Amino acid sequence: MNRTAMRASQKDFENSMNQVKLLKKDPGNEVKLKLYALYKQATEGPCNMPKPGVFDLINKAKWDAWNALGSLPKEAARQNYVDLVSSLSPSLESSSQVEPGTDRKSTGFETLVVTSEDGITKIMFNRPKKKNAINTEMYHEIMRALKAASKDDSIITVLTGNGDYYSSGNDLTNFTDIPPGGVEEKAENSAVLLREFVGCFIDFPKPLIAVVNGPAVGISVTLLGLFDAVYASDRATFHTPFSHLGQSPEGCSSYTFPKIMSPAKATEMLIFGKKLTAGEACAQGLVTEVFPDSTFQKEVWTRLKAFAKLPPNAVRISKEVIRKREREKLHTVNAEECNVLQGRWLSDECTNAVVNFLSRKSKL
Ligand SMILES: CCCCCCCCCCC/C=C/C(=O)SCCNC(=O)CCNC(=O)[C@H](O)C(C)(C)COP(=O)(O)OP(=O)(O)OC[C@H]1O[C@@H](n2cnc3c(N)ncnc32)[C@H](O)[C@@H]1OP(=O)(O)O
């Protein structure tokens, strides 16, 4: 039906708003911005809000889209909204039909799938469409899952990723939701969050195993220095491009990496951003063993199930004996790294790198 000659009623408008919620496929940022702008124009009229600051990327993009509609009348905006939604209709389907393996809640977590069986608690990053980038919610959920795993009856805990990536590290959109207190407050809160997050890995009482199913970036790599074993597919790569991002090492890697792989090799990774293959990471001691991707899951899980049959108290006590001497030192290093990073996040070097990624000008 050609709706352009018609005037959309309030009911049509409301129906379209409901249809948007049922979109199966993400229509993309450009369409979402258009929908947002038309909705605001249809309900509030022309944009007369103050322009958001340069760091507030998402709100600035929304403001730009709304402001670009100028003095378009409310009725016309309502009609354009209805037309735009109806043009998206091929992708309108019930949200219950979402395929498995997408970013949907399955176990009380939005960003993780956490399962426990055969003496193993598995924490799987579950944002495959975003390469398992760690957003603020995921930082909190990982901490919650680790705290629960430390108390459950499993013998070992495993972290892995859903999809083709292990994790692409910190979600760079974490830089965009700036609170009323401004970017300084955001940096301060983020340093507190990061310190608590890394602290959960330092204090974890059971063997912590990484099953690195694909490329790993940033904090998902640095944390590996705090794991008890790291098994990697030969598809995995290990990349810590902190200087490129105007940032500095975290996850205690400024301390663990030089110890694990020698100061010079750690420098190549942490300062110069050298990306290691799984084989190279194994040669440097960061990875315990590499498996061909075709047999990776089968071989690793067979091995982990055997580990999980060991006597639980012996396993836990041995981990304590191996790790306890280092714990205090690691907490000190963690605090220092977070402190330095807090300053880095406010630097032009970091801001430019994040803006370039978010405006699609750069990728690693
Ligand atoms: C003011 C202070 C606030 C600070 C808050 C910080 C809190 C704690 C920080 C702790 C310190 C951590 C540091 C790090 O981890 S540094 C590493 C950061 N990661 C990156 O820089 C990776 C960026 N991603 C890429 O370069 C590429 O996406 C990648 C090479 C990983 C994959 O490329 P490919 O072409 O294969 O795939 P796409 O780029 O198309 O990716 C698919 C979609 O996923 C989105 N994506 C992927 N990674 C990230 C990410 N890290 N952050 C945000 N979004 C990510 C990508 O944009 C695509 O999305 P769309 O489909 O919507 O376009």
UniProtKB/TrEMBL annotation:
Residues covered by the ACB domain:
9-94
Please give the chief subcellular localization of this protein. Answer: mitochondrion
Is ATP-binding among the key words of this record?
no
Gene3D superfamilies, sorted = 1.20.80.10, 2-enoyl-CoA Hydratase, Chain A, domain 1, Lyase 2-enoyl-coa Hydratase, Chain A, domain 2
Give the keywords, sorted: Acetylation, Isomerase, Mitochondrion, Peroxisome, Phosphoprotein, Transit peptide
> What molecular function terms (GO) are annotated for this protein?
delta(3)-delta(2)-enoyl-CoA isomerase activity; fatty-acyl-CoA binding
Catalysed reaction(s) here are: a (3E)-enoyl-CoA = a 4-saturated (2E)-enoyl-CoA; (3E)-octenoyl-CoA = (2E)-octenoyl-CoA; (3Z)-octenoyl-CoA = (2E)-octenoyl-CoA; a (3Z)-enoyl-CoA = a 4-saturated (2E)-enoyl-CoA
Q: Which GO terms describe its cellular component?
A: mitochondrion; peroxisomal matrix
Q: Which family does it belong to?
A: In the C-terminal section; belongs to the enoyl-CoA hydratase/isomerase family.
| Entry protein name | Enoyl-CoA delta isomerase 2
**Native species of this protein?**
Pan paniscus
